[in-house]
């Protein structure tokens, strides 16, 4: 079975892996935050953490897309809300007074949405068909990340000669399962039992990758491992179909924010 995963940064969403819990216990809050409707002429669409670990930026993104980042869920794990949650685009600039880990920045962004959009969500867990992420019988092959190092680069990737190169540092396995879920047809559920954070480097050939304009025919086949083979041979992990608990967010209340 071949399953493809695309570079999520190309879709306008840049994700960063979980960091270790910071020594500072006070929640990270974005003291300075601007939320405005996206100008009609703006064609960009991206939401990402800015360099320095203190800021989040969104340009031309729907509240639904921003919510997937803040709460670490896929689009199919969100339900409810008015139509404008999916269609209206927003520009957000948010900065905290101190540097935070990726986890803290996610939580800060969620708090900002709850405060400014009056977003209220209900959490549910549903037992559904899923890909189960487990350790291969030959053992895990990822290096354990230094627990003292809280700073790390986003999980991201690049195409080169038809092969996708993914890398991430300080990655928890539940987050890696979520990252894979973004492009898999089903959510991935972490069943590895691995307690640490790891440095992940994965190279493989996605199946049927379309051209850069999204409508061109797929390029000629490239010789290289598919995702399942690469996970097993390079990381010592396996993805198998089964059933597992998938978290969901139900939007119970939301309001458009006032301009600022």
Q: What would you note in describing this structure?
A:
The structure is a single chain. The protein has 260 residues and is α+β, with helices and mostly antiparallel strands. The protein folds into 2 domains: 8-125, no CATH class; 126-245, no CATH class. Helix content is 18%, strand content 33%. The chain has helices spanning 63-71, 84-87, 102-116, 173-181, 227-235; strands spanning 32-37, 46-49, 55-62, 78-80, 89-95, 120-135, 156-160, 163-172, 188-190, 197-204, 237-253. The strands form 3 sheets. A 4-stranded antiparallel β-sheet has the order 1-5-3-2. Strand 7 (156-160) and strand 8 form a beta hairpin. Helix 1 (63-71) crosses helix 3. The radius of gyration is 19 Å and the shape is globular. Mean pLDDT is 85; it is low at 2-11, 16-24 and 210-217.
Q: What characteristics describe this protein?
A:
single chain, 260 residues, four-stranded mixed beta sheet, 5 helices
List the helices and strands and how they pair.
Blueprint: E1 32-37, E2 46-49, E3 55-62, H1 63-71, E4 78-80, H2 84-87, E5 89-95, H3 102-116, E6 120-135, E7 156-160, E8 163-172, H4 173-181, E9 188-190, E10 197-204, H5 227-235, E11 237-253
Parallel strand pairs: 4-11, 6-9
Antiparallel strand pairs: 1-5, 2-3, 3-5, 6-11, 7-8, 8-10
Helix pairs in contact: 1-3
